[in-house]
Amino acid sequence: MAPASPPAPARRLPLAWLGIVPFALFVALFLIAPTMKIVLGAFQRVDGSFTFENIAGLFTPSILSSYWISIKISVASAALGCLAGFLMAAAMVLGGLPRAIRAPLLTFSGVASNFAGVPLAFAFLATLGPLGLVTVFLKTEFGINLRAMGFNILSFWGLTITYLFFQIPLMILIITPALDGLKREWREAAACLGASGGQYWRMVALPILFPTILGTFALLFANSFGAVATAIALTGSSLNIVPVMLFAQIRGDVLGNPHLGYAMAFGMILITGVANVIYIWLRMRSERWLK
């Protein structure tokens, strides 16, 4: 009689998976659940019945205007953030600046890219507001009146400049690894073939970096478009942008219809979601070249 085979060992979940349980719970409770509530609420009436009225309400002139202003601010801050951040990162990585500058700049960028909300709004009001430090200093010492010149921190360009405080550092953090990935052999090969520095950048470096730059632009656009606390704390109701109208709609100050606010938030989720998908797709393409 053949000996009985030993029982198969019971399958156990690797203990390493337990390490991501807190993160999974955090994502489920504070990201997935609120998002699903917003999506469902956008298609409900106050009594809970299904409707498309809230989505149709997004096409009213005032709400469309707020979306258009928010898109313009996001495009402006993303474009300026990409330009300034790229130039700073290129000067740090390729421009021959002292290596001692790299660590402090990246550390500051890591902190500043997450500095937003009420503290950021207060910092800019205290600096460039009507009675801000820089505003008063320029007026008393040099006779430069920023308000008379048309600058107002509670305006389109004021909010755009405020957003640049976290847009530029975010660009630096993302583009620096891409610049590090440019191989020295590519530049040497271009020089051996008679290419100038401008031709190398135009025909080799920028085409390789373009997916990363364009993807980072999409990410910065989403980052600016979804910035709610900074816009509300800085402009209040003086600028007709989506976060301000969304806050008023959820609170019931305008029409008393929170579900229209859910629909506005749903529109923001769609726009930022598309921008993030574009960023991820372009980032994956750029990594093929930089490996």
UniProtKB/TrEMBL annotation:
Output the Gene Ontology cellular-component terms: plasma membrane
Q: Which InterPro entries match?
A: MetI-like, MetI-like_sf
Q: Where in the cell is it found?
A: Cell membrane
Major site of localization recorded for this protein:
membrane
Q: How does it sit in the membrane?
A: Multi-pass membrane protein
* Listed CDD domains: TM_PBP2
GO biological process, any: transmembrane transport
Q: Which residues form the ABC transmembrane type-1 domain?
A: 67-281
Annotated TM spans: 15-33, 73-95, 115-138, 150-179, 199-221, 228-248, 260-282
The UniProt record lists the keyword Repeat: no
Q: Which UniProt keywords apply?
A: Cell membrane, Membrane, Transmembrane, Transmembrane helix, Transport
Claim: Ribonucleoprotein is one of the keywords in the record: no
Q: Which residues form the signal peptide?
A: none
Judging by the UniProt lineage, the source's domain of life is Bacteria
Q: Which family does it belong to?
A: Belongs to the binding-protein-dependent transport system permease family. CysTW subfamily.
Name used for this protein in its record: Acriflavin resistance protein
Q: Which organism was this protein described from?
A: Rhodobacter xanthinilyticus
